[in-house]
Write a sequence for this structure.
């Protein structure tokens, strides 16, 4: 049995805490807000994000970061915009060599840093790992079969995470490509937001399939330019997470996109969803990274224009469909040298 601290009591943090408790571990679930922690303790249910799902007795609750020390592993589930502040608090209680597993997705606005980069900067003596993949909290918390990937450069840490996480309903693969796994989990939120916009506009399956297919091309193109393994984007954190987030109503990014496609403003859509819509912030970071690395990302560019420059969604679709002729593959018609 492991002692585990989960930092962040949103839907995903709560779902992972429930799963780990059911695996037989003792879990401390930290909330930023004292009243939220008290409600979880009183009702043993996350009534806001996971109504109807009971939290096992071997999960304890706290809003004091000091209570989360002496864990065998610390799992961070705070949203990207809060991760820097959370990591600064954690730095005072974690020990050198401790495993920090990040399960949140997104890029830091302003710096465009990945979450593992933030954690490395704030806790340089810890072992940092990330987990991503097609995994809606609503399904994981109810034991619906799910598969994720853990990325870290430390093989023993990867195996330890597999040991504590895996059960008959949750399978974990490993991958040393931390950057690729993080970028896949982050960038797909931008494409999912766009998929929702298409749905809100009443466009069809053909349109969404095209968006998803070309979306994964843009994701892998940027990843390769930044030093990630292109193959990672064909896996769970890339195309796997993209499929589930673009097609499911569990996806907050898709739901927000639907509302935008129906005519709501970005601010109104986020307020209606009542959850952090990471795709909005990530779109700004993705555009900045595309410019920095000189990578062509037309979907991201048009998403940015819709989200931040007031462009009507139908104009963005027209812009994408009327672009100049292209080869599907960047290697198309290359002559093979003998």
């Amino acid at each position: 049995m492991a002692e585990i601290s989960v930092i962040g009591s949103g839907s995903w943090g709560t779902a992972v805490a429930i799963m780990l408790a059911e695996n037989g571990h003792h879990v401390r679930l930290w909330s930023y807000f004292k009243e939220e922690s008290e409600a979880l303790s009183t009702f043993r249910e996350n009534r806001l994000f996971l109504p109807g799902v009971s939290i096992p007795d071997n999960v304890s609750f706290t809003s004091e970061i000091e209570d989360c020390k002496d864990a065998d592993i610390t799992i961070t589930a705070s949203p990207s915009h809060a991760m820097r502040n959370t990591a600064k608090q954690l730095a005072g209680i974690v020990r050198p060599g401790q495993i920090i597993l990040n399960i949140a997705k997104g890029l830091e606005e302003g710096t465009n840093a990945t979450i593992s980069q933030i954690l490395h900067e704030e806790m340089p003596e810890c072992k940092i790992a990330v987990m991503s993949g097609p995994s809606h909290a609503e399904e994981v918390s109810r034991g619906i079969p799910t598969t994720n990937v853990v990325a870290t450069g430390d093989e023993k840490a990867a195996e330890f995470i597999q040991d504590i996480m895996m059960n008959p309903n949750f399978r974990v693969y490993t991958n040393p490509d931390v950057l690729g796994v993080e970028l896949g989990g982050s960038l797909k939120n931008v494409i999912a937001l766009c998929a929702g916009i298409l749905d809100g506009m009443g466009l069809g399956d053909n349109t969404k399939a095209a968006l998803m297919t070309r979306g994964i091309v843009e994701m892998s193109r940027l990843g390769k330019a930044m030093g990630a393994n292109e193959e990672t984007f064909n896996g769970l954190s890339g195309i796997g997470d993209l499929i589930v987030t673009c097609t499911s109503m569990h996806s907050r990014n898709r739901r927000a996109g639907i509302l935008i496609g129906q005519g709501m403003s970005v601010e109104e859509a986020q307020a209606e969803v009542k959850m952090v819509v990471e795709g909005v912030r990530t779109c700004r970071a993705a555009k900045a990274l595309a410019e920095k690395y000189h990578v062509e990302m037309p979907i991201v560019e048009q998403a940015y224009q819709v989200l931040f420059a007031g462009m009507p969604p139908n104009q963005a679709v027209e812009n994408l469909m009327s672009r100049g002729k292209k080869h599907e593959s960047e290697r198309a018609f290359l002559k093979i040298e003998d």
